[in-house]
Amino acid sequence: MVGIKTNFLLICLLVNNMAQQWYRMRTTYPDFLAICTEQKVASFLSCAALGRETNDATFFFEADKNHCRWNCTFIFRTGVSDGNIEWRKYEIESTKNSAPKKTITSSSVYGNAYHDWSPKYATDSIFQSGGIKIFHSANETSPWIMVDLKDVTTVIYLRIYVRMDGLGERFHDVAVEVANSSSYIQRGFYKGPAMTQEVVEILCDDPTNARYVRLRIIHGSRNVLNIAELEIYTK
Ligand SMILES: *[C@@H]1O[C@H](CO)[C@@H](O)[C@H](O)[C@H]1NC(C)=O
Ligand SMILES: *[C@@H]1O[C@H](CO)[C@@H](O)[C@H](O)[C@H]1NC(C)=O
Ligand SMILES: *[C@@H]1O[C@H](CO)[C@@H](O)[C@H](O)[C@H]1NC(C)=O
């Protein structure tokens, strides 16, 4: 189904459980480097369906040549402009990043040094290139970071800026778990391991409605969770 709503082109896909998911064209271009799987497709809709298959929150389409870029890995770089205007970026519809100014807690802070590694640095909207003023847990089995969105909210996807000065591989086997009180259920997963400077997008199962959103490493026994920035895109 294709629909026109206000001035966005919205693409609606019926997913497995028949819930509807909308993609819309972005008018601003990403400042991330994107390494994607690229292929010629029959139409825009085939491209969107490929994106759906790999659980993409974002994919690209070049209308002139019917080329699709999906299954992308994003790398944070400042000053990347999209020179190729013909590549349009589509992202799943959400209204805003709801993480800033919310209460954020974590399982631990490395060396209890809140001044350098508090979870609050994950939602301060500052994209640190170094290893301090980012969130840094202690070395434990299942470190986590949790945002209290205050109200039950529809969560669409999360965007995580992995540590940028090295050690990106620490970000692996991360589950998105949500709750309204204390019983968490898993609604998204990233296998990884990530690369240093990677920008990881995790699409949540549809629908995900909850007040608390937690990221937790669920495999291995000695893990450290480092997050430069965490964004939670909601309806
Ligand atoms: C997605 O990309 C990864 C490499 O980043 C590749 O190993 C995998 O086969 C790709 N998946 C598809 C469905 O193209
Ligand atoms: C939270 O409550 C809403 C209803 O208010 C419900 O739809 C949702 O499934 C609940 N979420 C969880 C994780 O239990
Ligand atoms: C965590 O601690 C274990 C045991 O002390 C150590 O072997 C491992 O390298 C540490 N992991 C990290 C990521 O620091």
What does this structure look like?
By secondary structure, the chain is mostly beta strands. The chain has two domains: about 1-95, Hepatocyte Growth Factor, CATH 3.50.4; about 95-235, Jelly Rolls (Sandwich). Helices cover about 5% and strands about 45% of the residues. The protein has helices spanning about 45-55, 115; strands at about 1-5, 10-15, 20-25, 30-40, 60, 65-75, 85-90, 95, 105, 135, 145-160, 175-180, 185-190, 200-205, 210-215, 225, 230-235. The chain has a 15-stranded antiparallel β-sheet that branches. Strands 10-16 form a two-stranded antiparallel ribbon. The longest helix has 10 residues, at about 45-55. The radius of gyration is 18 Å and the shape is globular. It starts with a strand and ends with a strand. Mean pLDDT is about 90; it is low at about 1-10. The protein binds 2-acetamido-2-deoxy-beta-D-glucopyranose (3 copies). One 2-acetamido-2-deoxy-beta-D-glucopyranose (NAG) binds next to strand 6. One 2-acetamido-2-deoxy-beta-D-glucopyranose binds near residues 139, 170, 222 and 224. This is F5/8 type C domain-containing protein. It holds the Pfam family F5_F8_type_C. InterPro entries: BG_Antigen-Binding_Lectin, FA58C, Galactose-bd-like_sf. Keywords: Signal.
